[in-house]
Design a protein that fits this description.
Order of helices and strands of chain A: HEHHEEHHHHHH
Shape of chain A: elongated
Oligomer: homodimer
Distance between the termini of chain A: 27 Å
Number of helices of chain A: 9
Largest interface: A-B, 36 and 36 residues
Chain lengths: ~230, ~230
DNA sequence: GGCGATAGCTCTTGATCAAATAGTATCAGT
DNA sequence: ACTGATACTATTTGATCAAGAGCTATCGCC
């Protein structure tokens, strides 16, 4: 559950030590949202949060504003803050965008590819496969995230990485309660190795087609789920 | 100077009428930053802003937090808020990402292209050219933004559009004080018509190469400028 | 004359408070 | 019994305040 990549703007700080009450509270609420402990649409009352987290209401007001800026919560005048709802088009747009970003990262990263990096990706893919085989869904999701984040890092564009992670976390915040089918999970592991092979061969066309097929498969899944969700 | 596209989250509201003091103040400060009226690194004191804008300090604290979440200002504990500084790699990453997004939008948009849309893009390109010929730099920048934003809209991905505009505005907030060389501006107008022609012919390869060449040219320009800037 | 410590000022930060607004429940009238 | 208005409660919103941190400038010391 350790996030190897923080999408914080104040990431220049030595650690995740938030000296501010506002930063502490912001991180706590963000974790709650991304971990799915609070569901989209749920109200976030300053007084209730203040009491629960042991802070005053002031830091919470500012924390919620910051999260509003990040797009995780929405604040309506005189109505307060709620966890941002995810409608169908928002989630699919987000995933489609992330597919483009992954293709971009693979293309950029191929030029700077080393054997060490290939090995590292293979290790991450292997980790994913073993988590799936052991039936540990939560760890598998985290492993999947790590694999893709690493690919984005190899691409070398910090902003693309940041956008990607924000999208990824948002999608999975919504999806945490659901699960992929077992078949899809197995195929995902195969897709990882296929992608790595394509990268090793510097076969951009193959890599791109794998990513696009994966995109199509997940997109179908998302649309199917979101259609019977009223959100 | 009217922005045809607001990247607001609360864009669902009927108009840009901010009923909140916080929203009003947030918009004012954001405009100031994006218009270049405050320079990167400049301090944003709550009391001074409150006095100048005619609000209390409370809404300003929350507004600055929201803008921190958007990435426009950075807040250091006990030091207050400053307009976010843009270092070399940040700006170049941003621009490179935007190039990818434009290619993505052109590819998606080509399928849904109509004669009306082509005409609209031609009108926007013509507007840009006339602004350049008249030597109206500010209007030309705005026209250029409108052209590219429209292409992103034709792509149909709302999230990509949002990310694109944020990046665009951030880059130009830094660049507002500078100017393209006259030659570059002329070429930019040519590139617009070349791109439109490629789209009309459904020639994705041509469109992509134009966008990549444009990216390379602007990237050189950015790097040259940022190298002798300490930021 | 130069360097470091201390005092003072400015600004942020967290807390409390009054007013305004929205949502809810109660009550009266038909 | 059902609809409508009214009063009440809960929560946000904007303001003020005390305390703490950081910066600056003056003063003393080497």
């Amino acid at each position: 559950m350790i996030n190897i990549l923080r999408m914080e703007d104040e990431a220049t700080l030595p650690a995740d030590s938030a000296v501010n009450s506002v930063d502490q509270v912001t991180n706590l609420i963000r974790e709650d949202i991304l971990a799915g402990r609070v569901t989209p649409g749920e109200r976030l009352k300053t007084s209730e949060l203040a009491k629960r987290l042991g802070f005053s209401t002031m830091p919470l007001r500012e924390a919620l504003r910051k999260l509003e800026g990040e797009g995780l919560v929405s604040i309506e005048p005189n109505r307060g803050a709620t966890v941002r709802k995810l409608d169908s088009s928002y989630v699919t747009d987000l995933f489609e965008l992330n597919t483009e970003l992954r293709i971009f990262a693979v293309r950029s990263g191929m030029r700077k590819l080393t054997l060490e990096r290939i090995r590292e990706l293979e290790a991450l893919a292997e980790d994913y496969r073993s988590q799936i085989d052991a039936g540990r869904d939560t760890e598998a999701i985290e492993s999947n995230r790590r694999f893709n984040a690493r690919i984005m890092e190899f691409g070398g564009n910090q902003e693309a990485l940041r956008v990607f992670l924000r999208g990824w976390d948002t999608i999975f915040a919504f999806r945490r309660n659901y699960r992929y089918g077992a078949g899809r999970r197995k195929i995902m592991a195969e897709e990882m190795t296929l992608l790595i092979d394509a990268m090793r061969r510097h076969d951009m066309a193959a890599a791109e087609s794998i990513l696009r097929m994966q995109n199509a498969a997940v997109m179908d899944d998302l649309i199917a789920r979101l259609s019977h969700e009223s959100t």
